[in-house]
Design brief:
The chain has 13 helices and 15 strands. It is of the alpha+beta class. Strands 6, 7, 8, 9, 10, 11, 12, 13, 14 and 15 form a ten-stranded antiparallel β-sheet that branches. The longest helix is centred in the first third of the chain and has 37 residues. It is elongated.
């Protein structure tokens, strides 16, 4: 059961997730050419991460609308029982898909093991940082801090700790934040010391410690998606640049001192580990180009202004628009859209004959017109999907018992195809299948006079003649080859 779910839904969902993340990354690079300032804004990458996760929303990958047409509910008017007992059916029988299924199982196992290992590293990283912080000395005397800094520390209940280790200053924590400073910071000139502490306090004001932990968690959960790691790296780079800008903007005359503080920190402080969970002033996760950009920014005579409400509102609207577009589009780009002009549907049964056509009248059906086409074939004959789509029903309880074991598939444009009187299933509800995929076998379940497949097509909830969508001449030639038609 789990293997089929992985095959039909989960892996397809992850594939769409990776592709969508790649599109967003490419779009970000395109935006960079027109508005570099937006791309260098850490909030942009936070919004981009949220948008990248949209394809993982369950609603996007369930049935397209899950609505069972009223025509099917009222197919047998003499029924006194409830026609719809539940919407998410359980497959009564599943068949192995051989080597492909083994491959899918191995891929799924690899993904799960990778997530477990990544989460273990995440937890170990949290533990290492906490252990490192607990070994530091708690500061209770804030005389070395300016009055403004003391006010910020008190207002945010920040724990200040000092360590003998030569590490870069950092802040860490989700609910309560700790700031860890190396003892060597207090040997720096007062101006540089104050700017360095202002930088870490700015991280706290901007809620960066929480964002760093959440980004790291997403990168661990989705270790297989390189675009999430790309977004995390860009976020960390922009986060430090934005803090530099905010500190310098508050005191434009201290640019030279700030640049010197940055250079001094690079020379004196080395981090013993890089968990990706803290906001390092000069962490090991940054390369030479990153530090050069920060120093150039500090030394530049230009003053980078903060983004105002207009820019923030623009980012929110843009993010919502892209997110709503992804949700509205749904992953139907690969579905076959069939309409009145499309006669390329695949025959659901090849080794059979038409025993009853559309609109045929018979006493067996109480003089009611036949709503589909019956393909007579031996029990166990393979039944394939005529069109690509999502399986809405795959059971013998959701619809009327006269259908027996039935599969209902929804396609693009709110069209459905129905396969009834099956002997077994090869799919389950919620699964995406492609045209030509095996979905079951011919049977004699339900109310029948002999083994056959009952096939229906519905357009916008109403029955349509399947002959418009199938090339029945292929059935005749194929049937003659196997000697079914006389």
């Amino acid at each position: 059961m789990a293997e089929q779910w992985f095959t039909g839904t989960f892996l397809f969902q992850l594939t769409i997730f990776i592709a969508w993340s790649g599109i967003l990354s490419g779009l970000a690079l395109a935006i960079r050419k027109f508005s570099p300032k937006i791309i260098n804004w850490s909030r942009f990458w936070q919004a981009w991460l949220v948008i990248a996760l949209v394809p993982l929303l369950p609603a996007l990958f369930s049935q397209t609308n899950g609505i069972i047409p009223e025509q099917l509910k009222a197919a047998f008017g003499d029924s006194q029982q409830s026609l719809v007992l539940h919407s998410n059916s359980v497959v009564s029988q599943m068949e192995s898909s051989g080597e492909l299924q083994v491959f899918i199982s191995l891929v799924s196992l690899m993904l799960v093991l990778g997530v477990c290992l990544s989460l273990l590293r995440f937890v170990l990283g949290l533990w290492k940082v906490r252990q490192f912080i607990q070994q530091a000395t708690l500061v209770t005397d804030f005389k070395a801090f300016s009055p403004v800094q003391q006010k910020t520390i008190t207002a945010n209940s920040i724990k200040i700790l000092v360590t003998e280790q030569t590490v870069s200053p950092f802040v860490f924590g989700f609910f309560r934040v700790s700031m860890l400073l190396p003892k060597s910071v207090f040997t720096m000139p007062a101006a540089q010391q104050g700017l360095l502490i202002d930088h870490e306090l700015m991280h706290i004001k901007r809620q960066d410690p929480k964002a760093v932990i959440l980004f790291r968690l997403c990168a661990c959960l989705f270790w297989f998606n390189p675009f999430i790691s790309f977004m995390e790296k860009r976020f960390l780079q922009c986060m430090e640049l934005n803090c530099d800008t905010a500190v310098i903007s508050a005191d434009p005359g201290a640019k030279l001192s700030y640049a010197r503080a940055l250079i001094a920190s690079l020379k004196l402080h080395k981090s013993p580990f890089d968990s990706g969970l803290t906001t390092y002033f000069s962490g090991p996760g940054f390369n030479k180009q990153d530090f050069e950009n920060r120093i150039k920014l500090a030394m530049s005579g230009q003053s980078n202004k903060k983004f105002g409400w207009c820019a923030r509102l623009t980012l929110v609207l843009m993010s919502c628009s892209i997110g709503f577009f992804a949700m509205a589009a749904k992953p139907f780009f690969s579905l076959d859209n069939f309409n009145q002009l499309n006669t390329d549907g695949i025959l659901p049964v090849l080794n059979g004959r038409i025993s009853s056509g559309y609109d045929d009248i018979s006493d067996f059906r109480g003089k009611r017109p036949h709503q589909g086409i019956d393909f007579a074939a031996p029990i166990g004959s393979e039944v394939v999907a005529s069109f690509s789509g999502w399986v809405i029903i795959a059971d013998d309880v959701t619809l009327h018992q006269n259908y027996g074991k039935v599969i209902l598939i929804e396609h693009q444009g709110q069209n459905q195809s129905l396969y009834a009187h099956l002997s077994s299933f090869s799919v389950e509800s919620g699964q995406y299948i492609s045209a030509g995929d095996k979905i079951g076998t011919v049977g004699a379940t339900g109310r029948v006079t002999g083994p056959h497949l009952h096939f229906e097509v519905l357009e916008n909830g109403k029955h349509a003649n399947p002959k418009r969508f199938l090339n029945l001449s292929e059935l005749s030639s194929s049937a003659r080859k196997v000697g079914v038609l006389r």
